[in-house]
Write a structure and sequence with these properties.
Elements lengths: L2 H13 L2 E7 L5 E7 L1 E3 L2 E6 L4 H8 L2 E7 L10 E10 L3 H14 L11 E7 L1
Antiparallel strand pairs: 1-2, 1-5, 3-4, 4-7, 5-6, 6-7
């Protein structure tokens, strides 16, 4: 990947708070959901309960697509990302702690929520 492109991607990831992630339901239909996320480099993390439709879809098929868009006032200002990859639950205790810290730093107003959620990560393919 060209360094300038990588910097643009990282800039968008840093500047946005939400992404829309599309998963595949067991009946074959796609499902798109907007979630808040954090990132470490090009790896993105979001939280959801293990019983959520997103988590069940990812357990069925780990392929995902997602979009991230920075806030904008006019169409000329639109900056965003669209990518595909795979997602999986975060199970390593050290990684869970690291993701929790990233979430608490980015979303301090949501301290209560991180304890009830399971982290999942999406990686670009």
């Amino acid at each position: 990947m060209e360094p300038a492109l990588r910097e643009e991607i990282l800039s968008v990831l840093k500047g946005a708070t939400d992404m829309t992630i599309a998963t595949i339901r067991p009946d074959g239909y796609p499902q798109a959901t907007t979630v808040s996320y954090v990132s470490a480099g090009l790896t993105m993390y979001f939280g959801c309960t293990a019983e959520s439709q997103k988590a069940l879809n990812i357990a069925y098929n780990d392929k995902v697509s997602l979009t991230v868009t920075l806030p904008y006032f006019s169409w000329e200002e639109i900056r965003g990302l669209s990518m595909g990859g795979t997602a999986k639950p975060v199970t390593d205790p050290n990684e869970i702690n690291r993701v929790s810290e990233l979430m608490l730093r980015k979303f301090p107003q949501r301290v209560w929520a991180h304890r009830r959620r399971h982290a999942l990560m999406a990686r670009r393919k």
